[in-house]
């Protein structure tokens, strides 16, 4: 009885197609425009959050949150193979990942420094309270996390050329 029940559950799960997807190797895609969309939403979101006179800049924070969600999914489906993956990672993949994350961390470093100087200057000129500064600092953190997800995928997608369908099958 128990074995028959388990066999029925196995058959039902095979009908969904999920076990076949889990057994197959993931196909890495060049996401050329998805990270651009994430950054295009994040930059105005950060600007709205910084320049808003009302303390809760909900529109800016909503744009930053949407861009963060998009940027979080970019590494999952993008061309970079993650560390510790079961996929075959050769020297080219390691070099591409290294270069992409160097560009991403450099962008995060320069942007973080500019945001630190900017939030300090605007807080001094705008007479912000501590809660206003912490709200804007949270927006800066969301922006930097968006950069962490989007910039390496963006670099790796534009640094490689897509394969022709004939080359891909060979």
TrEMBL record:
Keyword Membrane included in the entry's annotation? yes
Q: Which UniProt keywords apply?
A: Membrane, Transmembrane, Transmembrane helix
Output the superkingdom of the source species: Bacteria
Q: Which residues cross the membrane?
A: 30-51, 58-80, 100-125, 137-158
Q: What is this protein called?
A: Transmembrane protein
Give the species this sequence originates from.
Sphingomonas pokkalii
């Amino acid at each position: 009885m128990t074995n028959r029940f388990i066999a029925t559950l196995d058959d039902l799960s095979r009908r969904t197609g999920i076990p076949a997807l889990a057994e197959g190797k993931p196909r890495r895609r060049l996401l050329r425009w998805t990270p651009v969309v994430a950054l295009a939403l994040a930059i105005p979101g950060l600007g709205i959050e910084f320049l808003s006179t009302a303390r809760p800049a909900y529109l800016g924070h909503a744009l930053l949150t949407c861009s963060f969600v998009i940027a979080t999914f970019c590494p999952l489906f993008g061309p970079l193979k993650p560390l510790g993956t079961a996929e075959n990672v050769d020297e080219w993949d390691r070099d591409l990942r290294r270069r992409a994350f160097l560009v991403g961390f450099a962008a995060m470093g320069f942007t973080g420094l500019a945001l630190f100087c900017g939030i300090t200057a605007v807080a001094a000129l705008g007479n912000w309270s501590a809660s206003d500064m912490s709200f804007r600092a949270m927006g800066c953190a969301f922006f930097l996390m968006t950069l962490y997800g989007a910039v390496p995928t963006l670099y790796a997608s534009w640094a490689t050329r897509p394969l022709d369908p004939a080359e891909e099958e060979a």
